[in-house]
Each structure stands twice: as structure tokens, then as C-alpha cells.
Structures
1.
Amino acid sequence: MQVMALPPEPWPTGIAEQLEPLVRRVLAPNPSPYTFTGTQTYIVGAEDKVAVIDPGPADEAHIEAILAAVGDAQVTAIMCTHTHRDHSPAAAPLAERTGAPIVGCAPLVIESDLPRSDEAFDPTYAPDRVLEDGEAMTGPGWTLRAVHTPGHTSNHLCFALEESGALFTGDHVMGWSTSVVIPPDGDMGHYMKSLERLQSRGDTVYYSAHGEPITKPQQLVRGMIGHRRQRENQILRLLGERARPIPDFIPEMYKGLDPRLNKAAQMSVEAHLIDLERRGLVARSEHVWKTI
């Protein structure tokens, strides 16, 4: 995995930061090896009606920080890119406090007793409206249009702010790390197609749920596609040497990896292997993979 080192503290947790005339962000107090300094909630709108994107964890201090940033404005939409527990659980309590509808991605809960290396799914998420690809929410001076980007999760959406050229990318493209793609719901083939879709767009800046704004988005996406292709080639090369189980790939492919990210790396390799298997390039027998 490609990750950045944490910036020095203090981080701007709970503080509304103005990123551009229509966009503010509020950092949630949930830092971790998988969320960087925390989940970033965005408030879109400069007048009396605003949208909240990725309200984050159901943390009372964070909800209060969002409400303080909103001030006297009316929240007309609470929008979620996907339903991992660091993104959507605050939607329900925020809706209760504001009366705003919850809109955006479809509900999705994957039941599993396996240890997860991302944030598990939010079973409380109940949208009032699911946005289809290309549908939009509007307010005074702003339009947020849904862009379906499956891969990190099957229900993942990005939201394009048409007035400024910004794209809210959730976890699909992040400002600090490559996205984790975890089977069975995460799909590497879909993820690559979604990256290619973003590369074909003309967005000028990405605001992700974790990390700083991405000011050269096309360059970054091109590099991410190249990075994933490099990982795919590494897997094929290693399998060309001998058949092996997934844990055997990690020391060769992820030198110097934080041990806390080992499971995430294994799941990323598994996602690549499943995609290669679908394409007829590799096969498995029990827990051992080989080339065809």
C-alpha cells in the first residue's frame, strides 16, 4: 500500500476550514491506520441552504462541530459516498437534529466474522433517497451530481460540484493512501474501471474523505492506475517463480510495511488475484494460487 506519514499534531479536529467559496470541511476525531488523521466531512453551499457530505462517525463532538459550522443555514441534504462506519453513522442523528433527508449511496451491509482491515459497514444507514449515476442534488448556487464509482465498495459514489469543478471522492481516491479493495464486496476490476472513468473527466480538484485536497487529480489517477498495474505484474512474476498462498506475497511486495496494515495488504493482493482469475490468468487450489 502507498501511504503518507501522519502530519505533526495538532490536527484541525472539529474546526470548520474554508477550502473554496462553496466548500468547508470539518475533521472528525477518529484517526487510525485506516483513516489517517480522521474522516473529513464537507459542507457545500455559501448561502442559506447547504449539503453535508460524509457526516462521519456517530460521535457527539463531531456532530456538534458540523452543526456549529452550518450555523443558521438549513441542511437540505446529508449525502454519503458509501457506508463504512467512519462515513455514514452520523447521518441518522444529524437528520434528527436538522430534519434533512439522507441521500446518496445505496444501503449495504456485508456480514462477516473475518477480521476486517477497513471500517466495517454501517447497519444503521437508511437513505431517504438513493442517487443513481448522474442524478443531482441542488441548492442556491450549487449542484452536486452523483458519479457511480464501484470498487472500494459496490455502492460507492463520488459527488461532482459542477459550479467549481471539484469532485468529492470519498475513499475511491484519497489524499494520503491508495484505497483498500477488500473482497467479497470490493472488486479490483470495478475499481480500475472507476479510476479510468475519473481519468476521462475534467475535474479540477478532488476532496477526499482522508488527506489533503488533490490539486493535480488527473496526474494522481494516472499514477494510481500505473501502480495497480505494477502490483498485478508483481503478482504474476511471483507466481511465475512458484505457486504460493497469499501471505507469501507480502514480504516481496510490501517491503517495510507497517505491521498493522498487513491484513489490508493481503486483502488487496486477494482482490488482484480474483480479478486475474476472472480474466483467466491465474487459478487457485485451496489457499494456493498459481499461473495458468
2.
Amino acid sequence: MSDDDGSPRILLVHESAKDRAARDKLAEAKRGLTAKVHDVRALLSSSDGKVSDDNTRNTLHGDIDRVATLDSKSLPDYEDGVNALQRDMDAVRHSIDQKVADQKEAERKEAERKEAERKEVERNNAEHQHDGQTNSGTPAPDQNPPQPPAQDQNVFYASCAAVRAAGKAPIRVGEPGYDHRLDRDGDGVGCE
């Protein structure tokens, strides 16, 4: 545009206070969204392996990609983006808390299991000690295996022929006259 004399005309456009306020709000919303995206990325990297449900992290990741590239002239678009990221962050934090609670519950159950196991061992030990006594509280009879009766020292066989002649063949361990010399194979039965 030029004046009648050919010199360029300078048009001054005055921005209204209302337009300036709207532009400032939009710029503030963009900065707020950028800050929220930064916080969300930090949470996303710090929550790896710490959530009970990985879908919360996947949703957060998808919303970061969608919101970080937002280029709009509409203030509600930025507000909606911040709100969506905040919901996602809350879900991830809840999932982190849930995993911690689940781990504590698992530890509590494991401690209870070990305590029950320890009590079972104590009860079994007490029962075994109790089994060693009769109901009257007196000790039970000796649990040692019975010993073979003592050999009659007055009976002696010089050989298996003598055992056979006495009508005692075969002669077994514990019977009068048994001697290991008469038991060649050591099975407890002599003069077979």
C-alpha cells in the first residue's frame, strides 16, 4: 500500500487487550503442557519395572506422543492434554503403589507360611517327645531291640559232627552251644 505521493504507508495495527490476554493464556497453556510432558517423561522412565500393570505405562507413553506434538490455537485443547496426562500419571502412581502393596502382602504371607511351618515342626517335636512316654506320664518301655538270650556256658560242641550227634543241627545264634566257629558262612545258622 502507498500514499498518493507513492510513499509506503505504514499501518499500525493495535492489538486489543482482549486479544493480548487470549494470546498470553494460550502461551501459558503451551508452557504448562510442555512442563507436564517433562514431568510425565520423568515418571515414565522412573516407573519402569515398578508398576503392577504395564498398560498404565503404555497409555501414558501413547498420550505423551499425542500431546507433545499438539499445535493448536484452542486453549481447551491444551487444557485437555494436561488433564489427560495428569490422569495417566495418577494411574501409573496408583499402579506403583499397588505393586508395593502386593509385594508387602506377599512378604506377609510368606512370613505367615514360615511361622506356620515352624509351629508344625515344634508340634511334631513335642508329639515325638510325648510318644516316648505312656499316658500316665511314666517313661515307655525301653525301645532297644531285644538281645539274644545268653548262651548256656555249660554246652560246648567241638564240631558240627558233635552238634549233629546231639540232634541240635542246625544250630542258631542264641541257642545253647552256638559258636561262630560252627557257622562258616556267618549267616547266624551253624552246621547247616
3.
Amino acid sequence: MFEYHGWVTVRESAAAEDDEDFTTERARLRRLVAGIEERARQVGGHGLLDVRWINGEPFVQLAGFANHRDPGIPEFFREVGARAPGSYGLLYVHDDEDRAHPEGFVVHRMVRGRVSEHQDALLSPCIPVLEDPWTS
């Protein structure tokens, strides 16, 4: 089982916006987001993979549930950070085929476009936190 839930606030950089160059910056950001949208169409996934603008800001939302691991999902998350190095967000992944973390979620944390992995302490271990153990 491969379950994932995540979001990214897409930012070209972590620098403050300059009002004088706002139009130029927005045009660059729109081109950057168009590339992310194209890549999202290629990745697909087993669920939600949505790039949209909300109140003038671009966001990525992703969630899904598949029978087996989909390495394209964490790769896409990292790629968004590489394309837009001011971005931040979280991707929670539960992969029962992951030998290091078969019983819990791993959190992929994006800050300033860089992704690091962390053990989850809020939803893990899945049994008994989220589900009861099997009984015979």
C-alpha cells in the first residue's frame, strides 16, 4: 500500500517581492508554474495531483492511494522544489514496502525548495495509532 498527502506553496524565490518589478516577476512565475503543470500531467499519480492559483498564488496539492510504491510522487515533490527554490510544503507518505518505515509515515519537508525526510510522530505507527491490530 502506498498512501500520500501533500501540498506545496510555489515560490520562485524566498526573497521579498519588489513592487517595481511585479509584472516581470509574475510573468516569470507563470512560466515556471506552466512547467510544473506540464510535469504534473506527465506524473499523473493514483489520485489527486493539482496545480492551481488561489488568490494570485500558485499551489500544488497531491494525494493518493495505490497498491504499490510510486517513486514518481516524491520525485515530483523534489522537482517542484528544484524548479522553484523559494517553495515550501509537506508530503506525508506511508509505504508498506519501505523496509525502514513499513509501519508509519515519512514526512518529506520542503523549505526554500530543499527537501529533507523526517519520521512522523503524529500519525505513526499506523497500528495502533490509526488502526487496531489484526485479531485472530
